[in-house]
Write a structure and sequence with these properties.
Helices cover 36% and strands 29% of the residues. By secondary structure, it is an alpha/beta fold. It has 2 domains: 214 residues, P-loop containing nucleotide triphosphate hydrolases (Rossmann fold, 3-Layer(aba) Sandwich), CATH 3.40.50; 55 residues, no CATH class. The strands form 3 sheets. It has a 6-stranded mixed beta sheet with strand order 6-7-8-3-9-10, with helices on both faces. Strands 2-1-4-5 form a 4-stranded antiparallel beta sheet, with helices on one face. The two termini are 32 Å apart.
C-alpha cells in the first residue's frame, strides 16, 4: 500500500530524510519510532503530498505522490500532530465541513457523522464547540475527521502526544479497531510502549535514516530478549542476553547493583546508537 524508494528530503543543508526505502502492506499497522527531529514527520509530509521529495520516489496505493497528488489525497486520511481543528465550530460541524470538502452527499455525510461520533465516544459532545473539548477529545476528533471520507490509508503523526496514560490507551483501542476494518495505518511515535503495543512492524529512525526494521519481537530478539542494567559511576551499563538464564548466571559473577528485565525497543535503539530515544 505504501512504497518508498531511496526517499530523500533536504531543507537547505539539512537532510531530514536520508535515502529511506521501505514497504507497508495493506491492513498493516506500521510505525516510525524515533526521537524528535529524526525525520518522522517529514516522511509523513512527503507521503501525504504536503512537501515534495528532493529525490527518490514515494507511492501510496500505487500512485506517485509527486505526479498524482489528487489520487493520493483521495486514498488517505491524516491526523496531524498539531491540533488543527476549527475551534469555533462544533464537533458535528467539523466533520460536516470535512465531508463537504470531499464532496460527499448530504445523506452520506449524515450517516458517516453519526457512525464516527459514536465510534469516538463524543455523542454527548457533538454540538459542543471544539474549544470546549479536552485534549483527548480533540485527538479523537482528529482521527474521526481523517476517517470521514473512508480512506484506505490513515496517517497518524504522534497520535497520543500530550495525553495522559488512560486516554492514550483508549486511543490505542480505537487504532486496533480500525485495523480490524482493513485500514492501513502509518503512525509516528517516540513512545516505546505505543510502538510495541500497536505496530505489526516498526522502523526505527535516527537522523533521517532507518537504522532497524522489523516486527517489535524480531527486533528485540536480534539484540537479546533479556537485559542486565548495572549501575556504574557514570550511569547505567547495559548487557544483552539471549535468555534470562544466561543473564542470571552472568549477574551472579559481577559486583554491582543489577536489574534484570525483558528488552524493549529503546534497548534496540541504545544497542545501535549508544543513545536513548528520549535523548
Amino acid at each position: 500500500m505504501i512504497q518508498l524508494n531511496e526517499l530523500t528530503k533536504r531543507f537547505a543543508d539539512i537532510v531530514a530524510v536520508d535515502r529511506v526505502s521501505l514497504e507497508v502492506k495493506a491492513s498493516e499497522v506500521f510505525g516510525l519510532l524515533g526521537p524528535n527531529g529524526a525525520g518522522k514527520t517529514t516522511t509523513i509530509r512527503v507521503l501525504t503530498t504536503l512537501c515534495k521529495p528532493t529525490s527518490g520516489t514515494a507511492f501510496v496505493g500505487g500512485h506517485n505522490v509527486l505526479s498524482e497528488p489528487i489520487a493520493v489525497k483521495n486514498l488517505i486520511g491524516i491526523a496531524p500532530q498539531a491540533i488543527n481543528l476549527e475551534s469555533d465550530l462544533t464537533v458535528r460541524e467539523n466533520l460536516e465541513f470535512h465531508g463537504r470538502l470531499h464532496r460527499m452527499t448530504r445523506a452520506d455525510r449524515d450517516k458517516r457523522i453519526k457512525e464516527l461520533i459514536e465510534f469516538i465516544g463524543l455523542v454527548e459532545k457533538q454540538n459542543s464547540p471544539v474549544e470546549h473539548l479536552s485534549g483527548g477529545m480533540k485527538r479523537r476528533l482528529l482521527i474521526a475527521r481523517a476517517l470521514m471520507h473512508r480512506p484506505k490509508v490513515l496517517f497518524l503523526d504522534e497520535p497520543t502526544v500530550g495525553l495522559d496514560p488512560q486516554v492514550r490507551r483508549k486511543t490505542w483501542e480505537m487504532i486496533r479497531e480500525l485495523k480490524t476494518k482493513g485500514i492501513t495505518i502509518f503512525l509516528t511515535t517516540h513512545y516505546i510502549e505505543e510502538a510495541e503495543n500497536l505496530c505489526d512492524r516498526v522502523g526505527i529512525m535516527r537522523k533521517g535514516r532507518i537504522i532497524a526494521l522489523g516486527s517489535p519481537m524480531a527486533l528485540k530478539k536480534n539484540i537479546g530478549e533479556t537485559i542486565i542494567e548495572c549501575r556504574e559511576d557514570n550511569g547505567y551499563g547495559y548487557k544483552f542476553f539471549k535468555t534470562r538464564d544466561e543473564a542470571i548466571r552472568y549477574a551472579e559473577g559481577i559486583d554491582c547493583d543489577v536489574i534484570i528485565r525483558e528488552s524493549n525497543l529503546e534497548d534496540v535503539f541504545i544497542k545501535l546508537t549508544g543513545e536513548r530515544i528520549s535523548d
